[in-house]
């Protein structure tokens, strides 16, 4: 696969089938074909390790696997062995399986800052359960979330704050307020503006930038001083920052935290964890009003919990987090060198922690550009690299990273031509890619 030769006739046909049967043509908006250059949205046939194959037979080195969930690589042998073992024993029963106790104990040993845990299937259920619990414990309705972080839940308390609030009552959306990352004074001002109203602060402990010194501890102190609950969304930072998440790395324990994505290496499992005195509100061993915390038919399927235990064991025993950082550092350095060599270092920009890299595509004015993103993605795809981000998996080899850097260099050469021409349109191949959150189609 090279140059302009990439054609995806079978993928295009399957995309039409997807749109005919599924609103948006995908079950996750970030996987939609509007996120890719026109007629270059590959439909995946299968994957192994750090590579995937589309239904047209093209092979790609893949980044951001499963929206960051497949951090060990596709079809990881240790995970599959654990899953197969449980499938032969049944996966769902009318009473808890012993696997539920084993998985909970394993999680609490891996994330020792948590005292209790409850499993679910997706991140939204876990974050919404955290919000519900905070509201129940505090008797307050208002939620404060970090405005600089892109996603917390499919539920109304979050989606009402996005450019896609259709179908959400304004009364619900009005109960959510926001604060900027890294600014303790802004959070203090929010508490002053809504005295005794804020049930919780919810944020990712870190994203593309490291937390300022004292920031996370300061948030915890502010939350407790104002009678609020501090919630860390560790869907992404969990395992990628450290086996114990960002809270383990930075040494700041939240009241509640949520995990997912890497936890199951592609199998559906998420977790709400936290302090016992709060978590027990959702249990049976207290004398207050009951809280409907999490109750899911499939939340404790044994094969998914077995996958989670295998993932945790692999991370700890094989030093996966360190490998992710090493691979990411090699990739970031290579991409920056390639961009600099082509004179686009100020336009193709790699950001974030080495284990969780993203890239920005900036126009001649230094403004983020969907057109230049389209150009860049198109050149990556034609070079055999599927990379909506540069988030690595541990299945990558150094040779894969080096090949990716070579393809990035070719893409940057075209990027330079477009900048010199003052117009990327001739290199787009059709309409530009679109942001996920937008008001109109």
SSE order in H/E notation? HEEEHHHEHEHHEHEHEHHEEHHHEEHEH
* Count of DSSP H/I helices: 16
Order of adjacent strands in the largest pleated sheet = 4-10-9-8-7-5-6
Distance between the termini: 32 Å
Category by helix and strand content: alpha/beta
Overall radius of gyration = 22 Å
- Anisotropy-based shape: globular
Helix % is 25-40%
Low-pLDDT segments, ≥5 res: none
The biggest beta sheet is recorded as: 7 strands, mixed
Mean pLDDT, to the nearest integer, reads: 96
Strand content: 5-15%
* Total E-strand runs: 13
Describe what you observe in this structure.
Its EC number is 5.4.3.8. InterPro entries: Aminotrans_3, PyrdxlP-dep_Trfase, PyrdxlP-dep_Trfase_major, PyrdxlP-dep_Trfase_small. This is Glutamate-1-semialdehyde 2,1-aminomutase. Belongs to the class-III pyridoxal-phosphate-dependent aminotransferase family. With 441 residues, the chain is an alpha/beta fold. The protein has helices at residues 9-21, 65-68, 77-87, 98-110, 123-138, 156-159, 170-173, 184-193, 215-225, 237-240, 245-250, 276-279, 302-318, 320-341, 370-382, 398-421; strands spanning 44-48, 51-54, 59-62, 116-120, 142-146, 176-179, 198-203, 229-233, 256-259, 270-274, 348-351, 358-361, 385-386. Strands 4-10-9-8-7-5-6 form a seven-stranded mixed beta sheet, with helices on both faces. The protein has a four-stranded mixed beta sheet with strand order 1-2-3-13. Strands 11-12 form a two-stranded antiparallel ribbon.
């Amino acid at each position: 696969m090279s140059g302009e030769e990439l054609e995806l006739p079978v993928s295009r046909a399957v995309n039409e089938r997807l749109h005919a049967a599924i609103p948006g043509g995908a079950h996750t908006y970030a996987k939609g074909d509007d996120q890719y250059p026109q007629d270059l949205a590959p439909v995946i046939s299968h994957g192994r390790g750090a590579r995937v194959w589309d239904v047209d037979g093209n092979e790609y080195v893949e980044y951001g696997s499963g929206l960051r969930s497949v951090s060990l690589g596709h079809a990881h042998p240790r995970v599959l062995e654990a899953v197969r073992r449980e499938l032969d024993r049944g996966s769902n029963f009318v009473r808890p399986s012993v696997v539920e106790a084993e998985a909970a104990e394993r999680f609490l040993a891996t994330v020792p800052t948590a005292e209790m845990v409850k499993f679910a299937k997706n991140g939204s259920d876990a974050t919404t359960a955290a919000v519900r619990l905070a509201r129940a414990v505090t008797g307050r309705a208002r939620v404060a979330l970090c405005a600089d972080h892109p996603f917390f839940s499919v539920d109304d308390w979050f989606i009402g704050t996005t450019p896609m609030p259709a179908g959400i009552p304004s009364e619900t959306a009005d109960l959510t307020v926001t604060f900027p990352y890294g600014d303790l004074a802004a959070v203090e001002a929010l508490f002053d503006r809504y005295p005794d109203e804020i049930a919780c602060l919810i944020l990712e402990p870190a994203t593309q930038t490291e937390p300022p010194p004292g920031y996370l501890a300061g948030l915890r102190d502010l939350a407790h001083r104002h009678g609020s609950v501090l919630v860390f969304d560790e869907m992404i930072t969990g395992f990628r920052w450290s086996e114990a998440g960002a809270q383990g790395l930075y040494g700041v324990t939240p009241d509640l935290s949520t995990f997912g994505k890497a936890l199951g290496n592609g199998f559906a499992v998420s977790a709400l964890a936290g302090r016992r005195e709060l978590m027990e509100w959702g249990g049976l061993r207290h004398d207050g009003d009951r809280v409907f915390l999490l109750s899911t038919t499939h939340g404790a399927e044994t094969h998914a919990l077995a996958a989670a235990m295998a993932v945790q064991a692999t991370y700890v025993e094989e030093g996966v987090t360190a490998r992710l950082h090493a691979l990411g550092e090699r990739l970031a350095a290579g991409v920056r060198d390639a961009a600099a060599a082509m004179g686009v270092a100020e336009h193709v920009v790699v950001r974030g922690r080495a284990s969780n890299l993203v890239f920005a595509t900036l126009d001649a004015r230094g403004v983020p550009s969907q057109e230049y993103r389209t150009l860049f993605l198109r050149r990556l795809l034609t070079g055999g690299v599927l990379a909506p981000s540069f988030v690595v998996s541990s299945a990558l080899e150094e040779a894969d990273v080096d090949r990716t850097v070579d393809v990035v260099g070719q893409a940057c050469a075209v990027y330079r031509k477009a900048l010199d021409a003052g117009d990327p349109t001739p290199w787009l191949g059709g309409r530009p890619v679109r942001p996920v959150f937008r008001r109109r189609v």
